[in-house]
Each structure stands twice: as C-alpha cells, then as structure tokens.
Amino acid sequence: MPGRRVRRHFSQLSEFERDIIIGMKTAGWSTRRVARQVYRSECAVRTCWEHWTRDGTHVRRTRSKATRKTTRREDRRIVRQALVDPTVIRSTIQSDVGVRVVPQTISRRFAEANLQSKRPVRVLPLTPKHQRLRL
Question: Where is the Transposase Tc1-like domain (predicted)?
C-alpha cells in the first residue's frame, strides 16, 4: 500500500532520532506530526519528550548492576594463575586471590579471558583402521 508508514514499535530510538524529536517538539510541532515525520509511534515521541522535560536530558539511564567483587588487578591475577598452571583448581585460586569470592566468580573471570577448562583425554580416539577392525 503506497503511503503506508512503516511501524517500528519494538526498536528503541537512536540518539539521532531523540535529537530530532526534541528539536521538533521545541519548535512547537505536535506529537502526532513529529511521530509521522520520524516514523515512530506517538507514545514513543511522548515518552521521549517527557524524559526531556523531566530530566533535562534524552540519554537513556544506565541500569544498576551487581557490583564486581574483584578488581582488575585481582582478575588479572586469577587469569595468570590459570595460565601458569592449567591444572590448578578453583579453590586454590580462591585462597590465593586474597578476596572472598565464590568459585562461580572465578569461572566467570576465565570466561571473560576466553579460557576454557582443559579436561584430560580419558582414552585415545580410535583410528579409522581400528574402527573398521572393531566392526
């Protein structure tokens, strides 16, 4: 259908779009007119404008996260211990770090450093010849 606007309900407004909306609303444009111009819903335009008038800024607020239990230096120490001795266990690292951390935290630091657990091979893999002989 020609003339039908594209609806992007579920995508978030970019910083550029927020600037445009605020500029148009400051210039006196109606919410409906701004929404048609930027191809967004009136609700999105209204919410953006309310944030601007209430907070004086259009930047989205950061969400609160759980605080990290270890510093960058302690993170490097955890990773270094794993690199120096790949057979070291988490409880040993936990006692060496000096900060009370759970083993899950140590596993997360390994994952952040792209380290994976190295399990010893239980049995040697069969060669194609051995597989044929077994069959």
Answer: 75-135
Structurally, the chain folds into a number of domains equal to 2
Q: Which domain holds residue 46?
A: 15-55
* pLDDT tens, residue by residue, 68-103: 888 899 999 999 988 888 888 888 888 888 888 888
Nearest partner of 35 among 46, 19, 50, 23, judged by Cα = 46
Rounded distance between C-alpha atoms, residue 35 and residue 46, angstroms = 9
* Domain-embedded: residue 31: yes
DSSP 3-state percent helix, strand, coil across the chain (nearest 5): 55, 0, 45
The DSSP secondary structure of 38-92, one letter per residue, reads HT--HHHHHHHHHHHHHHS--SPPPPP-PPPSS-HHHHHHHHHHHHH-TT--HHH
The reply to whether 132 falls in a domain is: no
Rounded CA-CA distance 118/71 in Å is 26
Please say if the pLDDT value at position 10 is more than 70. Answer: no
